[in-house]
Design brief:
Blueprint (H helix, E strand, L loop, with lengths): L8 H36 L1 H31 L11 H31 L4 E3 L2 E3 L7 H36 L12
Antiparallel strand pairs: 1-2
Helix pairs in contact: 1-2, 2-3, 3-4
């Protein structure tokens, strides 16, 4: 029997789809967070501001759906071994960052959805308006949006750590870690 040297293709594809959605979501979220609604309207106009908000919400729901599929593929298929094996420090850091990213990327859209609904705003997914998971509560909405923002910064840090680890293995250690998630042979 041949040793598995990479994740199954569906899991690898989901990884890269999530990565793209997360980067776009972080970019739109940071823009909206720094400028606020009025600042974004002043800079981009009301139409583009609404598109940016709608896109950010759509990306959040998409990330939630993709992460659900990632969890399913992670549980359903074997995880390839590291060849050569990681040392203890690398294994602890890698496992911690991966688990925290999974957790954050599932919790973040749920908090955003709840914050949006409790603020009385529409929860959009492309052209559809999704049901709110909670009734209007402006004080709760404000607290959840603040938590959503802090979690965004946390995800940004985790993404940077994840990318730094990938670059370390690719360019410095030159081991097979990058091959495990590569879409190409």
């Amino acid at each position: 029997m041949q040793a598995l040297d990479r994740y199954v293709y569906p899991h690898r594809l989901l990884h890269w789809l999530v990565a793209g959605a997360v980067l776009l979501s972080l970019a739109s979220g940071l823009t909206l967070g720094f400028l606020g609604f009025e600042g974004t309207v002043d800079l981009m106009g009301k139409t583009l501001t609404n598109v940016l908000y709608g896109s950010h919400k759509t990306l959040g729901v998409l990330i939630l759906l993709l992460m659900t599929l990632r969890v399913i593929t992670r549980l359903a298929f074997a995880v390839p071994d590291y060849v050569p094996p990681l040392n203890r420090f690398e294994r602890v850091v890698s496992t911690s960052v991966h688990h925290l990213l999974y957790l954050a990327l599932i919790i973040m859209p749920l908090i955003g959805w709840t914050a949006t609904a409790s603020g009385g705003f529409p929860v959009e997914f492309f052209v559809w308006q999704l049901p709110g998971v909670i009734g209007k509560d402006e004080q709760l909405s404000e607290q959840l949006f603040m938590l959503h923002g802090w979690l965004g910064w946390t995800i940004l840090v985790l993404v940077v750590l994840h990318m730094a680890g990938a670059i370390f293995h690719w360019k410095i250690k030159r081991d097979n870690v990058m091959k495990r998630m590569s879409l190409f042979d």
